[in-house]
Specification:
Oligomer: heterodimer
CATH architecture of chain A: Orthogonal Bundle
CATH class of chain A: Mainly Alpha
Strand order of the largest sheet of chain B: 1-2
Helix content of chain A: 55-70%
Strand content of chain A: under 5%
CATH superfamily of chain B: MetI-like
CATH superfamily of chain A: MetI-like
Number of helices of chain B: 12
Order of helices and strands of chain B: HHEEHHHHHHHHHH
CATH architecture of chain B: Orthogonal Bundle
Distance between the termini of chain A: 42 Å
Structural class of chain B: mainly alpha
Structural class of chain A: mainly alpha
Order of helices and strands of chain A: HHHHHEEHHHHHH
Number of helices of chain A: 11
CATH topology of chain B: MetI-like fold
Number of domains of chain B: 1
CATH topology of chain A: MetI-like fold
CATH class of chain B: Mainly Alpha
Helix content of chain B: over 70%
Strand content of chain B: under 5%
Largest interface: A-B, 86 and 83 residues
Radius of gyration of chain B: 22 Å
Largest sheet of chain B: 2 strands, antiparallel
Radius of gyration of chain A: 24 Å
Number of strands of chain B: 2
């Protein structure tokens, strides 16, 4: 301990620290405000209906985000359809069924590790495992792989997946899987033990307890986590870049095997060009992206506030 | 039956890790067998020059140094500000202030990193250039600050969780002994939550190391060893973007080198996560 100080000095330190706190806290608020204002300033001018409904173009004035917008919708839908059941299932097993032993400890540590793996590394995994399938089917449908249906039909399917919507969606699934698992585990953990004991005491099987009691009680938490994970998926671009999302595509995807672009990569492409006109439309695309994001966050906040009943 | 299916789902996460390790190891092994490459040069070489010139050099240090420079800038911005913000949120803020601050941080946390990259390129860099003409149109400082903004909400929310887990009785005790709010927060609550705070810092740092789109847009493309924040640097992730965006043939040495870089990146973030987990387990102060 330092030498005793007078009460006045200590009160002064107290005041000074509060000032530092307020200053630091305001950094986040100011940064967010500046960011939003600067993007609105740059992007509102070129944001109009045509921008949303036109295909990409080499001329910034005519360019639109139709294809990447639909690409994002396809990729995120696939990602959600696989990641949510898989992640929630994993969490239910770990929290409600698995005996706490060496295996669960390894799985748990492993999930924490997966949550820390940079997303671009998942891109490499997705490229090898989904787009190329470890080379097990050659490099294309002609060269050792196979294809069903014709390329324009909705049911067209081929192996390996190539740089397709399906490969992209599955890669994003890898990225958000640990997030979904961790969020669901936390939601399940917050359900009081007494509810489970009550159900079991009334003669319910463990599965009936989980399905009828624990899961319904944890649903608001699980949904909040799922929505936040999906909002991460919408904004993720590095892994899709590695898998081979294209930066210039005219059409929205037609089937699971279509080439695709996504909104964040379109933003990346435009932002990386030197001309100010492209920066302006990049900002417009960012506005669209942020509106989608705010809608997602809004739903999450709504669920948290309206549906979460106190259980204790 | 259902439980069996769920158990299979749980094993999937193990499969993912195993596959990552196998893929990275196999391709890196292949990379080391190219005639231009040697393991010694990769880990000891001070020159990374895979694309231009007649003589290719594959020394990882320029890329590591670029990554570390950006990370250090990001961490020196985000860690102190994030910690102080979390102390304020957990110890001082009224429920009303929290109700506005928490959503602000959540929005910041949800903003796609490519947006931060755009922000760095179109706003932070021009501002830096107004301050000093030494800053180029691509520089480590701008990318570092944007990365710092990106990790700020992570630091805040994880540290705040750790601080709030400290039981009320410790605060009451310190207040009863005549401590000011400052004494209670900084000398009692923060030390009690230290393991959680350090783990939060490590997680944020590992995020900064793996961050891709910000550095690909704002940091530039010159792989060099420098501590100068006004200089253009290339990070490990930015190099991978350059390779996967370009038309390097999938069998070429440049292409394979990106797998070796990815393996290095994976190893670095893996170690950070493991250390964080260890600290949480080993040094957690259990109360009650």
């Amino acid at each position: 301990m330092a030498t005793p100080r007078s009460t006045a000095t200590r009160l002064l330190t107290n005041r000074a620290f509060l000032a530092v706190c307020l200053l630091a806290t305001n950094v986040a608020v100011v940064v967010l405000a500046v960011l939003l204002i600067s993007i609105l300033w740059q992007g509102l001018g070129s944001l109009n209906w045509n921008f949303l409904t036109h295909a990409a173009s080499r001329k910034p004035a005519e360019a639109g985000i139709l294809a990447p917008l639909w690409g994002s919708v396809w990729v995120c839908t696939i990602c959600g359809l696989v990641a949510l059941p898989l992640g929630i299932g994993t969490a239910i097993y770990l929290e409600e069924f698995a005996r706490k032993g060496r295996f669960t400890r390894i799985v748990q540590t492993n999930i924490m590790n997966l949550a820390g793996v940079p997303s671009i590394v998942y891109g490499i995994l997705g490229l090898t495992a989904f787009a190329r399938m470890f080379g097990a089917f050659g490099t294309s449908a002609e060269d050792g792989g196979f294809a069903i249906g014709n390329e324009e039909s909705l049911l067209y399917f081929k192996l390996p997946f190539g740089s397709s919507v399906l490969a992209g969606g599955l890669t994003l699934m890898l990225v958000i899987l640990p997030i979904v698992i961790i969020a669901t585990q936390e939601a399940l953990r917050s359900v009081p033990k007494s509810l489970r004991s009550g159900a079991l005491a009334l003669g319910a099987t463990p599965w009936q307890t989980v399905w009828g009691i624990t899961l319904p009680a944890a649903i608001p938490g699980i949904m909040t986590g799922a929505i936040l994970a999906m909002s991460r998926a919408i904004g993720e671009s590095a892994p899709l870049l590695v898998v081979g999302a294209v930066l210039f595509v005219l059409n929205a995807p037609e089937n699971l095997m279509s080439d695709f672009a996504v909104l964040p990569l379109q933003i990346f492409n435009w932002a990386g060009r030197p001309q100010d006109e492209f920066h302006a439309i990049a900002a417009s695309a960012i506005i669209v992206q942020l509106v989608a994001l705010l809608a997602f966050n809004g739903i999450a906040v709504f669920i948290r506030q309206k549906l979460q009943k106190p259980l204790q | 039956m259902i439980v069996g299916t769920l158990a299979i789902a749980a094993t999937f996460s193990i499969l993912v890790t195993t596959t990552i390790v196998i893929v990275l190891a196999r391709e890196t092994w292949g990379f080391f067998h190219f005639p231009d490459v040697s393991v010694g040069e990769f880990f000891g070489g001070l020159e990374w020059n895979p694309l231009l010139g007649s003589e290719k050099h594959f020394g990882i240090w320029p890329l590591v140094s670029g990554t570390l420079l950006v990370t250090v800038i990001a961490a020196s911005f985000a860690l102190p500000i994030g910690l102080v913000t979390s102390v304020y949120l957990s110890e001082y803020a009224s429920p009303r202030v929290r109700a506005t601050l928490k959503p602000t941080l959540e929005i910041l946390a949800g903003i796609p990193t490519v947006v931060y990259g755009f922000f760095a390129l179109t706003l932070i860099t021009p501002l830096l250039q107004k301050i000093s003409p030494a800053f180029g149109s691509y520089n480590a400082m701008s990318a570092g600050l944007a990365t710092g903004i990106m990790i700020l909400p992570i630091v805040c929310s994880l540290s705040e969780d750790a601080l709030r887990a400290v039981p009320r009785s410790l605060r009451d005790g310190a207040l009863a002994l005549g401590g000011t709010k400052f004494d209670v927060s900084v000398k009692v609550v923060v030390p009690a939550a230290l393991s959680g705070i350090v783990a939060a810092f490590l997680l944020a740092i590992s995020r900064a190391i793996g961050e891709t789109m910000i550095v690909a847009l704002a940091a530039g493309g010159i792989a060099q060893i420098t501590a100068n924040p006004t200089a253009e640097v290339q990070t490990m992730t930015a190099y991978m973007v350059q390779i996967f965006l370009g038309d390097a043939p999938a069998t070429g040495v440049e292409y394979k080198s990106s797998y070796a870089v990815a393996a290095m990146l994976f190893a670095m973030t893996f170690v950070l996560t493991m250390v964080g987990q260890y600290i949480l387990r080993r040094f957690r102060e259990e109360y009650e």
